[in-house]
Amino acid sequence: MTTSKAVLCLSVAAGALLGWAAPAAAQVAEPVTAPPAQSDDAASDDTPAADIVVTGSRIRGTAPIGSSVIAVGRDEIRNSGATTTADVLRQVPQIAAIGINAEGASGAAAPSNISRASAPNLRGIGPTATLTIIDGHRVPTQGTQGQLVDPSFIPTLALERVEVIADGASAIYGSDAVAGVINLIPRKNLNGAEVSFRLGGGDSYWDYQAGGAVGGSWGSGHAMMAADHVWNAALRGADRSFVSSDRRRFGGANGLTTNCGVPGTLTVNGTDYRVPAGSGTGLTLGNLTAGQNTCDSAKLAYLIPETERTSLFGYVEQQIGDRIKIFSQGFYSARNSDQYEALSLNAITVPATNPFLPNGIAATTPVSFSGLLQALPYGHTRIETETYQGIVGAEAKLGDFRLQLSGSYGKGRDNTDRVQINNYYLNQALADTNPATALNLFTGADGNNAATIGRVTSGRFNVTGESTLKTVEGTIDGALFRLPGGAVRIAVGGEYREERLDGTFISSSAVTGLPVTTGSSNSRTVKAAYGELVVPIFGADNAIPLFRRLDLTGAVRYEKYSDFGSTTNPKFGANWSPVDGLTVRGSYGTSFRAPGLSENDALSSGAGIYQFPAALANGTFVYAALLAGGNPGLKPETATTWSAGVDIAPRGIPGLKLSGTYFNIDYTNQIVDGFGRLFLYLNNPTRYAGFVGFANTAAFTALRQTFANSGFTASPALDYNSASLVLVDARRTNVGVVHAEGLDFQASWALETDRAGTFTVGANGTYFLTYKTGEAGGTLVESKNQLGFPVKFQMRGSLGWRSGGAAAIVNWNHVGAYDNINSTLVGRIGAYDTFDIDVSYTFGGEAGSFSRDLRIGINARNLFNRAPPLADLANGYDPTYSSALGRIVAATISKRW
User: Fold this and answer.
1) Domain with 109 in it: what CATH number?
2) Is residue 303 part of a domain?
3) What is the C-alpha separation between 855 and 837, in angstroms, rounded?
4) Which residues of the chain have pLDDT under 50?
5) Structural domain count of the chain
6) % helix / strand / coil in the chain, to the nearest 5?
7) CA 121 to CA 89: how far, in whole Å?
8) Is the overall model pTM greater than 0.85, yes or no?
9) Among 534, 576, 569, residue whose Cα is nearest residue 554
């Protein structure tokens, strides 16, 4: 987009905002154009504004120049009904849903999320392009491949606010800040105590949260600690009527399959037969009925597993004399979940030696079985995650400057352990000629030998990833000298960090049946130096007409990687206020992201060959074999970002704030994971000929050689002569290109009345003008409003009221309709609108009375129980932008002392 077009778009946006300011909202994230004001919560942080470092700048007391910071404050967090910090971030439309989440998502990184984590995804570019930090500090990565940060490691009671800068910020924070930064700001100066209990429930679903925070000061220092425990019940596909693999009721595909049918389907020389219920003995081919025993696999799936999480956070600070203070903060979070799913078979070869094979089948006739084996117990998947970090530091006043030194150590560990079928013992049991020990596919456990079943179900799938982060950082900032417009301020510093990822993958050998362990260990060191300068050209002391204020800023960061060389990234910004209450701003910068430690390792945890049935856009199935793993030849990702915006706070309309921003992102060398692009590969085989090959094509022949050279063994062995087999090279590669531009808008208005209380209204939203994607050197194609990419329009609006201790707020969440490019049958997914409401009363009373600061609230998410829009996808809906939970009503009680 040209500059003139950008200015035109901003003008239109600003005019629209002014025109509908009256219906704008309050319980929405607001832009920050100055150091944020503190909450009126008596327990909030009371740090002076001059000492606050706002996200997007290293200089104290200065909001980032040229960029807009979106903040979710303490009151909004408390009123949101959120049980986790990830739920809090769902309030921010600039975060494209939650890029990956426990319920699943269609984004590029979602398939690798086997630990059911949540990770923010600014601008929809991908979770790895969003940097999540705590109080300005990096935290250890999580996930079995060390590629995400789940923000729920910090209890919601420990949050003072969340600040989001949806603009490239590598010049300030380094790698990973391509799309922006999410900064979790903890409460530090809590004086007193607060406890909270929440109990929520919906249709076939319950959750609860219990937490507390306590803090105090002793004149020269203060400390604070918070903890919470969150639990939720499991939600299965069978609990929701709209969840189904069979989407024919709304024109979609028939996704019913045979691999979970009971008693199963026998395929003899290409003809399907229904296996009858019974003992599974004395069967004859002539007595079998042609057809299939199909099943609805979506009904058996866990949409959300039963999960519990415990999180702790602490902060302590001690002043030493007038000039020095020391501080320390740390967190610990553990999450565990369990799910029990049926073990199924898909087209397993049944040898002629099996004594239970129906009579009348010639020994040379190919026979296979698909179904949910009645004889096998449910498979158990256990997910355990743990993350912790400790930070210690000191700060010294040196005249007008402040020096801060800090160091941190942290780890993130994810483990997924799954019981599955052991193919080695399965084949042995099927080939066994002894009826007493052979596996009978056609009956239940009573008709099978217990020891045989034990061996067949002894398969292991265990993936562990452990990330370690060590950092040392020093920054000095302060005023260099004064100009007529104000003080010229500077921040300079350096950082040293060590990153390490250890991965372990345990699977059962197809040759011996015994567990085989493979592992990988990768590390790097990063050295960085950075500087930032703010120059006030015009200010209060030298303001002239049309130049009430003009601030310029420049920042640069140099980083040297032990494995990827060096990179330098600048950023420039300007704020211009021609009149009081109006600020025009702009920014320009470059960003980068170094490949993750698992991405450039061919043997990273989870590397290997995976195979499963996959649906094409027309509803038919193929059998896909995917080669997964990293790529040692990867290069860093790079991006150029710029933005222009206006902030309006009319003096004649107290409490009104309007903001509009145009953003432009050019992202190259993006690292893509074939698992997340499978539907693109399968439905565009010509365009992606280097990555996907259908049977009897040149691409298939080339990929077969790639599979053979990989060093991995497929279990069960691949039938390369099968007409339904499709080979996919899903390893990481630097081919992604993204060009995105759009508009952000925020509006809020608080109207105070003498008798009726205070009314607040507001809105926050994002509108994508374009989101083009492609392969390096190829043609870019428009991808906005398509499955797996950002929707064109997403917003959150709200209306609130407060009078005395009573308060009520209603939130409207809107996601526009978008295209399902994974289906040629039903190519559209409808808009999704939900409403949340929170009603509360906070008691007053005399100091010291129990009722004082006692808050009782009722919160409802998805008040009208809106079901997700129907989608021709595996489960019948898209969990990226909607949820199967439905209406959740919760009661909350909290007390402050």
Assistant:
1) 2.40.170.20
2) yes
3) 16
4) 1-27, 34, 37-45, 99-100
5) 1
6) 10, 50, 40
7) 10
8) yes
9) 534
